[in-house]
Each structure stands twice: as structure tokens, then as C-alpha cells.
Amino acid sequence: SVPSTSPFTFRKLAGCTLFITGASRGIGKAIALKAAKDGANIVIAAKTAEPHPTLPGTIFTAAAEIEAAGGKALPCVVNVREEQQIINAVEKAVKTFGGIDILVNNASAISLTGTLETETKKVNLMMDVNVRGTYLTSKTCLPHLRKSRNPHILNLSPPMNMNPMWFKNHCAYTISKYGMSMCVLGMAEEFRGEVAVNALWPKTAIHTAAMDMLGGSGIEKQCRKTDILADAAYCILTKPKSFTGNFIIDEVLLREEGVKDFDVYAVVPG
Q1: How do beta strands 41-46 and 72-77 pair?
Q2: Where are the strands (E) in 102-165, listed by range?
Q3: Residue 185, C-beta contacts closer than 8 angstroms, at least 6 positions apart
Q4: Which residue among the candidates 173, 178, 234, 265 is catalytic per the annotation?
Q5: β-strand 17-21 against 41-46: which pairing, if any?
Q6: Taking all residues of the chain, what is their mean pLDDT, rounded to a whole number?
Q7: What's in the GO CC field (predicted)?
Q8: How far apart are CA 11 and CA 16, in angstroms?
């Protein structure tokens, strides 16, 4: 994990409230657990209330893990396609914890398919969840974030590279993820000095249930654990709000922070 600069561990996110979309599993849950170790409050804004037939975890199992790790959890059923569900969860979060300090836009839909193979309902899903969901969740949280001492929005989205290679195999997906990145570009400037807005993206594939479905068996050998994104997110979210408008790659940031051994993050070391 990231080396602490001080001899004693300073719990930087103690008492902070994080609103994390898609936090019932995968990367969102890993970021939640990392913050929970500091004693943070976590709003688990995710869809899965009943156990899913193929995907692990619900908002309630995630809440139990967060509390066991030392945090406070508020599980909320939120499909980011439904604006009213976002509004209700934000209101509940503010009522429960007194405000919101950090928003992590992690919820995403993915279909790595070509233009002719991507069904319209899949296009709609990716645009609704990735672009519109990120935009609306940010919009709903911003009035509360502006009242925080060190507010952050963190989108799990890539640097905008206009090389056609990133578009040709999955045009709709890339457009939707770049839509999230454009939210960073615009909102970082719009709220400069008030709220930090940054993007985080992995250098390698990350082993999650989604990756198992996409990549098939044996894919985990090419992946890193979700911990690398949790550690990178923690670094970003504990920086001052003047750190804004950045498109961060997990490994690059962690190397700058002094991490040398990346084998600890490999599912299969080496």
C-alpha cells in the first residue's frame, strides 16, 4: 500500500462522507473499503438490492464489509438512469451524515462491440449510465460539495486520446467514457477553486466480475487487483482541492508517490 509520510498513520478521510456510485462490488467497493479504514462515511449508491444471479454482492453485503473495515455505511438503491433515485439518495446522505465531501462516479455500463454489433438498447444504456448518470449525479451533489472543506469529484474515466485506435473496435463505449472525461474537463474549470474534479483510469486491465464476463476464463492472469485503483483514488481524494482537472493513470501517480513494487497488485505476480 501507499507508504505513509508520517511515522503514525493519519486517518485523512476520517469523518468525510463519500457518495460512490456502483459501490456494491468491484472498483467502487474497493475505493469504499479503503476510505472506510480511515473511518469515513460511505453512501453506497448502487442498483443491486437483491442478490444477482451471476454478479457477487449487494448494497447490503457491501455495507456490512464497509462497517467491518471501520466506516459507516448508508446503502441506497440507485440506478443512475433514474434522476429521482439520485436526488433521493443525496438527500438521505445529507440528512444522515450532514453533507457530502466526495463524489466518486464509478457506475458504468460496458459493451466492447463494433458499431453494427451494438444493439440500440446497449447504446442507450452506456450513454445513460456513463454520460448522463455521471452528469446528473455530479449536478445533484455539487451544491453540497461546495459547502465541504475539501470537496472532490472523481470520475473513473480515461484521458481523452483522439487516436482512432481507441474508437474503432467499440465506438459507442469510447464515446460514453469520453463523455465522462468531458465532464471532468468542463466541471474542473467551472468549479475551479471550489471543488476538485479529476479522472482516474487504470494502466492495465483490472480483475472484476465485469472483466470475467468480458474476458472469459484465464483473463485474470493479465489483470491487476482493484486495490491499485483504491490506493490511487485515496491519493487523489486526500490532496487539496487545488489539485483539479487532471487525467490520472493509476500506476503513474503511485510511482510519483513512491510506490516501487507493483507485483503486490498483480493477480498473478510476475
Answers
A1: parallel
A2: 102-105, 152-156
A3: 160, 245
A4: 173
A5: parallel
A6: 95
A7: mitochondrion; peroxisome
A8: 10
Helix%, strand%, coil% for the chain, nearest 5: 45, 15, 40
What is the fold, at CATH topology level, of the domain defined by 17-265? Rossmann fold (3.40.50)
Of the ranges 47-61, 102-116, 242-256, which one carries the lowest mean pLDDT score? 47-61
The Cα–Cα gap between 27 and 227 comes to 8
pTM of the model: 0.95
Structural contact between residues 153 and 138, judged by C-beta atoms closer than 8 angstroms:
yes
Per the DSSP assignment, residues forming a β-bridge with 163 are: none
Give the whole-angstrom CA distance, residue 56 versus residue 54: 7
Q: Quote the pLDDT of residue 159.
A: 98
Percent of residues, the chain, with pLDDT higher than 90: 89
Position 240 pLDDT exceeds 80: yes
Q: Which amino acid is at 227?
A: D
Non-local CB neighbours of 68 within 8 Å, separated by 6+ positions: none
Known active-site residue 173: yes
pLDDT at res. 3? 47
Cell 448502487, residue? 46
- DSSP letters along 169-202, please? T-HHHHHHHHHHHHHHHHHHHHTTTT-EEEEEE-
Q: How far apart are CA 102 and CA 221, in angstroms?
A: 33
Report strand pairing: 223-224 vs 205-206. Answer: parallel
Report residue 128 as a C-alpha cell: 445513460
